[in-house]
Amino acid sequence: MSHAPARVLTIAGSDCSGGAGLQADLKTIAMLGGYGMSAVTAITVQNTLGVRAIEVLSPELVAGQIAACVDDIGVDAVKIGMLGSAAVAHAVADALALVDVPVVLDPVMVATSGGVLADGETVAAMARLMARATLVTPNGPEVAALGGEAALVARCRAVLLKGGHGDGDALVDRLIVGGDEQVWTHPRLDTRHSHGTGCTLASAIACGLGQGLALAEAVARGIAFVQAALRAAPGFGAGHGPLGHQAVRL
Fold first, then answer.
1. How far apart are CA 64 and CA 128, in angstroms?
2. In whole angstroms, what is the distance from residue 134 CA to residue 153 CA?
3. Computed over its alpha carbons, how large is the radius of gyration of the chain?
4. Residue 85 to residue 174: CA distance in whole angstroms
5. Do residues 138 and 164 make contact, with C-beta atoms less than 8 angstroms apart?
């Protein structure tokens, strides 16, 4: 009899065009052998050209979705993406206080397309989730919005500082856990098809943690998955196109 797949819950916004948000998360989890579930925080109207509209769900509805998954299916790991409001952030923190599993927080505030997805009050409320998270995965602009690298390292158990917004031909991702640092360096791919990279990476890491991988192993596999998905991008859209999740074989 085969082992049951790791149960991974993504708490995130919906991207109707399928490239980012919970759609990217569920594709990633499935490709890595996990069982994906979702608690929708917001409905977005977006595509590769940008975000046109956002409607945030009620905190009660978000918390209800989390409870429905946890109470029946169970959960081995959680990925948190776009929250949409401070009230939703607090509701998620309350719900996860009752669940003792690894949590990967992607503090979604600035989309790849440049759209701002969180206000100041939501950023402040995110502090509770940052303290709870096993790993926080900010990009460059999000690091700045959250007070800088030193503040993040001091407040979080572990931080993965992503290098996608940096300059140069090499992309450097840095995992900082306490006083230890591990670095992954790889060539920067010259592509406009990078929509959903942050969502994909965070959900891949969460899936790995749910499957029992050590943090550094989960991060390494997540980075490899994103790199492969970038190379396999189907070329859809006129802007920042989606990754090729379905083509990845690790």
1. 19
2. 12
3. 16
4. 29
5. no
Lowest mean pLDDT among 49-63, 76-90, 111-125: 111-125
Rounded to whole angstroms, how far apart are CA atoms 195 and 128? 27
Tell how strand 35-47 and strand 7-15 pair up.
Answer: parallel
Task: Tell me the CATH number for domain 7-247.
Answer: 3.40.1190.20
Q: Which amino acid is at 28?
A: T
CA atoms of 217 and 200, how far apart (whole Å) = 16
Which amino acid appears at position 187 of this protein?
P
Domain extents in the chain: 7-247
- Whether residue 32 contacts residue 245, with contact meaning beta carbons closer than 8 Å, is answered with no
Strands 180-187 and 7-15: unpaired
* Identity at 125, one-letter amino acid code: A
Q: Note the pLDDT tens digit of each residue in 69-80.
A: 999 999 999 999
Global confidence as pTM: 0.94
Q: How many Cβ atoms sit within 10 Å of the Cβ of residue 217?
A: 14
Distances from the Cα of 174 to the Cαs of 147, 160, 222, in angstroms?
17, 6, 13
Q: For residues 120 and 38, give the distance between their C-alpha atoms in angstroms, rounded to a whole number.
A: 25
**How many C-beta neighbours within 10 Å does residue 135 have?**
25
Task: Give the amino acid at 193.
Answer: H
Amino acid letter, residue 158: A
